Amino acid sequence: TTDIRLLCSGQIITDISSVIKELTENSMDAKSTNISIALQSDGLKQITVTDNGTGIPLNDRDLICKRYHTSKIQGVTQLSTLRSFGFRGEALNSICSVAGKVTIITQTLDEPIGEKIEFRPNGEILSRSHLSVGIGTSVIVENLFVNFPVRKKFQESKLKKESKEIQKMITSYGVANPEIRFVFRSDPSVTILKQIAKSFEDNLVAIFGTTLFSQLFKIHYVFKEIQAEILCFIPQNTSDLKILTKSRADNQFYFVNKRPIQGSFFAKIINKKFRNFSSSRSFPFVVFMLTIDPSEYDVNLNPKKDNVLFHNKEILSEWLEKTFSEYYIPKQK
Ligand code: ADP
Ligand code: MG
């Protein structure tokens, strides 16, 4: 519909990590508790994301890869109450247009047998056949950018950096979702695996290990003025700090309603307070989760949706300034 068009701002599939991001978020939106991501040739040859979610309803399948087809919202007015990752209905269509081939295997609870569907670059169906795989969805993306030599070359030139980014992204999703088991395989390398965890803390131990976890301090705060809550794990304010990281991207995880966020004002404040305190130039390990009413912010800034605009930013930043000034008191020299 025309409403949905308003939400769309161009190209979202620029690299392998954006394919993985979109497919993984679709799996999470489908209420999966088990998500597996597998790459062949670092993803250039094949990207497969398999989940045990709801599956794609039979009636939706004709349209699933068509532009602006989404089952998640009916119009822009619903954006302010949105809880899902997706809402533009662009991702599958864009992936089809830049991949050599896209295949979806899916089965819902209502069906005795699943279906395997192959799509054309314009999102139309090329073939369908029955296949039994169990409830859930598998999306297979082959030969990404095969008809886009410039983009393919560029992607090939930054594969190492890209694979670091992918690891960080999947780790982020793992951190934010204790209730989901994540499997990541990049052939021929080993599987990285996180089982379902009972609590947020257990989950951090499962991902980062007990040594790191034991050096963390937990801050939990519920705001009164706005519907918001912060859960944060940061290095303890002792002199014996082992969990410093050189590069900011490596070991800092910021989320707004489970959505990983880049370059936020939270990061700036926390890093500043920590550096004053530790008098080092490194960045601390941080897990920072803001849970906030969707009407309090806008994620619809760019297609990657990894930046946000808050209506009550002052309330949040004041709390951060105060809390972290009191926690990380610089030592007297
Ligand atoms: P969006 O996520 O913005 O709605 P997408 O192009 O990513 O758009 O997906 C289109 C639609 O396909 C979704 O709205 C959803 O109904 C369906 N879909 C995609 N992936 C899955 C999945 N793994 N499980 C169930 N449904 C899915
Ligand atoms: Mg989506």
Automatic annotation (TrEMBL):
Keyword presence, Signal: no
Domain DNA mismatch repair protein S5: 204-325
Keywords from the UniProt entry: DNA damage, Endonuclease, Hydrolase, Nuclease
Domain of life per record: Eukaryota
A GO MF label: ATP-dependent DNA damage sensor activity
Cell membrane recorded as keyword: no
GO terms under biological process: mismatch repair
Gene Ontology CC: one annotated term: MutLalpha complex
Recorded family membership: Belongs to the DNA mismatch repair MutL/HexB family.
Protein name: Mismatch repair endonuclease pms2-related
Organism whose genome encodes this protein: Anaeramoeba ignava (Anaerobic marine amoeba)
Stretch of the intact protein here: 6 to 338 of 929
